[in-house]
Amino acid sequence: MASSTTVKIAEFRRLLSHAHSVLVLTGAGISAESGIPTFRGAGGLWRQFKATDLATQTAFARSPSLVWEFYHYRRELVRTKQPNKAHIALAKAEKRFEKEGKRFNVITQNVDGLHRRAGTKNLIEMHGNLFMVQCTLCQFIEENDSSPICESLRNRGSPDVNPPEIDEKDLPRCTKCKSLVRPHIVWFGEHIWDDVLEKIQKEIQLCDLFIVIGTSSVVYPAAGYASILAERNIPIAEVNIETTPSTSIATYHFHGPAAQIIPQLLSVNLNNE
Ligand code: OAD
Ligand code: ZN
Questions:
Q1: Is 174 marked as a binding-site residue?
Q2: pLDDT of 16-42, one tens digit each?
Q3: Under a CB-based contact definition with an 8 Å cutoff, are residues 242 and 54 in contact?
Q4: Is 55 annotated as a binding residue?
Q5: Which of the residues 16, 20, 97, 255 has an alpha carbon 20 to 30 A from that of 207?
Q6: Coil vs helix vs strand at 167
Q7: Is the dihedral of CA 254, 257, 261, 266 positive or negative?
């Protein structure tokens, strides 16, 4: 006899085969199986700090050295990790949809760049990217994936020790005006960039099937997309190892790790890779 999960997966696949504009929202949980700690789960602390205490303008103003050490640590960590089966399945599904002339877009709250590395093209990184920086003076935005990002950060960023502060002049600088740069990331208390919000708005309007993967659904505006779409009766599938505020409005809740469930949901065969 088919289990209820098998039935749900079959139902979801039927919806997917009829969808014309699939929208996927991902959070830290999709990268958990790549070995990147989530924000609110175990492993969410760096030194004595919660990530959410360091990802703020106040923390950066108080100690650019501390905040840069934290981001340097995360940049170097992500470099050693690989996209997992969930990221890869999404990239493959996008290709399949494109071939069929249908839309398939991913909005991610993650700054780890793993969707890009997996090959996803239609991607909105709504909170920015660890490998982009922005000048605190002239506002110039540029990619910077140097390792380390500057000499003074070499061998720094360890989560276990609290070394002396690095002088501001030795922290990462703008290639145009030589002023201090910051990670090009939306911090707590900051607004998502207008151009990004516009792109998201457009995708929400076009969406006829929504998939929410690995997010605790507590940080807005992303946490609100499911209810906006539920009001329009758009089918919603949630994939998570826990229940969240989105679970009660989702049409389907698939309970389990994304790397296992996403390839099945999207009918992507990754066995030969
Ligand atoms: P959270 O750490 O809040 O939530 C991660 C979610 O992933 C939780 O609901 C977990 O149950 C789930 N999860 C963990 N492992 C999983 C797995 N293998 N498969 C599926 N689900 C899994 O992370 P986000 O929701 O992404 O913002 O957090 C949202 C934002 O708050 C982040 O983008 C960040 C953060 O502070 C900024 O940095 C601006
Ligand atoms: Zn500058």
A1: yes
A2: 999 999 999 999 999 999 999 888 776
A3: no
A4: no
A5: 255
A6: coil
A7: positive
Task: Tell how far the Cα of 29 is from the centroid of ligand 1, in angstroms.
Answer: 5
Q: How far is the CA of 44 from the centre of ligand 1 (A)?
A: 10
**The Cα angle at residue 224 between residues 223 and 230, in degrees rounded to 5:** 120
Residue 162 or 168, more confident: 168
The predicted model scores a pTM of 0.95
Q: Per the annotation, does 197 bind a ligand?
A: no
Cα angle, residue 125 at apex, residues 18 and 19 outer, rounded to 5°: 5
Compute the chain's Rg from CA coordinates.
20
Give the CA distances from residue 106 to residues 42, 72, 123, 204, 245, in Å, rounded to whole numbers and listed in that order: 26, 26, 5, 11, 20
- At residue 265's C-alpha, the angle toward residues 260 and 268, to 5°, is 80
Measured in angstroms, how far is the CA atom of residue 31 from the centroid of ligand 1? 9
Between CA 172 and CA 166 the distance in angstroms is 11
Tell me, what DSSP letter sits at residue 36? -
Ligand 1 pocket by Cβ (under 6 Å) = 27-29, 32-33, 38-41, 52, 55, 109, 127, 186, 214-216, 219, 239-242, 244, 257-258
In the chain, the domains with their CATH numbers are 1-36+83-127+193-273 (3.40.50.1220), 39-80+130-185 (3.30.1600.10)
Closest-CA residue, ligand 1 atom 16, reads 29
Query: Closest ligand 1 atom to the C-alpha of 51?
Result: 36
Give nearest CA residue, ligand 1 atom 9: 216
- pLDDT of 42 reads 67
